[in-house]
Amino acid sequence: MANTKQAAKKATGNFVLEKKPVAVETKFTIAQLKENSRSIFGVQSEVVDGALFDYKEKQITKTEASNLIKKFLQKVVK
Length: 78
Prior knowledge:
By secondary structure, this protein is mainly alpha-helical. 55% of the residues lie in helices and 8% in strands. Helix 4 crosses helix 5.
């Protein structure tokens, strides 16, 4: 057991952490996403309007838009 701990300490000292490149996601205009909302998100364009109503930027990634749409659809109606 002691030998494995020593071997693990030696082995970890030899490794160098490598940073993997992060993929940059393409940004689209809100109008483009709204036009294709049915095929991209499976919702009507009105849902995209509601979800991105207070969004300040002119462009957004599909992931960000998808997250905002999910939050919008999960809101409780009062």
